[in-house]
Amino acid sequence: MLFVWAGFLLSSRLAGTQAFTPWDVALLRYAGGFATVLPIVLFRGLPKVGLLPALALTATAGFGFPILAYIGFRFAPAAHGAVMLPGLLPFVSALLFTLAFGERWSMARVLSLLGVAVGIGLLASDTFQDHPGAWRGDLLFLGGVTFWAVYMLLVRRFQVGALDATFAIGLLALPIYLPFWWFLAPSNLAAVPWGQIAYQTVFQGCFALVLAGFLFTRALNALGAATLTTITALTPAMAALGAWPLLGEPLGWAGIAGVLLVALSMALAVRGART
Question: Distances from the Cα of 174 to the Cαs of 28, 54, 90, 120, 254, in angstroms?
């Protein structure tokens, strides 16, 4: 799951530097997800989730999170998305789950969150200084994180299984989004080479929407939000390290120290949860 999330960050930033509009990338995501889910649903049956919960899940994880991320990558580099998207998720989700369910914070969780905060700060100090005008993308990333945290809250509130949540989003997103893209959304898809279209369709749809969505929701139901979101905090380190050779965004000593601190904080959170 973490590798797919890191790949989502890098692939989305790559699309942001190509001829795609953010709306085009979203269309490819939903088309790829629909093509992946439909044959399974025809064999397995419709997802066991009501229409209103399914629409709520689609609005948050299906539309809110990826579309804001795609637009954000038009303004900010991959390192910003790596820091802002999964890096802030433990804090936003902790706040929402505390307000909604009154969850208590253990000492291990507090210490792990502090470690993640310092590590993300080090990574941010190493990557943000070269892109002072990227604050617009950062705000969009924060909005995307909030949508994903609300999705996590809805999964727990509605008690939705991983397959049902993933299949509901995969089935609903394309039919809802396609008319909007066709009539209203700015598009430059005709100018994009077929190889780039095929790559984004397969990765964004099959891997990011379906595979990562299923694995994340399954882990959420099995581990709980506190442990899972701290584990996903390792994604910024993975994406930042991947952006070094793939996108030409090197890390300094502060960034490397941030990567190590986030990894140690994740280990502390997992150990504390098991204890």
Answer: 9, 14, 29, 34, 42
Contact 168, 47 (CB under 8 A): yes
In angstroms, the CA 67 to CA 216 distance is 19
* Integer angstrom CA distances of residue 74 from 12, 23, 134, 137, 219: 9, 11, 9, 7, 31
Instruction: Encode pLDDT of 58-114 as tens digits.
Output: 999 999 999 999 999 888 777 677 777 877 787 788 888 888 887 777 777 777 778
Task: Report how far Cα 191 is from the mean position of its chain's Cα atoms.
Answer: 27
Q: Which of 69, 65, 60 is nearest to 155 (CA)?
A: 60
Token readout for 126 is 């190493």
19 alpha carbon, distance to own chain's centre: 22
Q: DSSP code of 47?
A: -
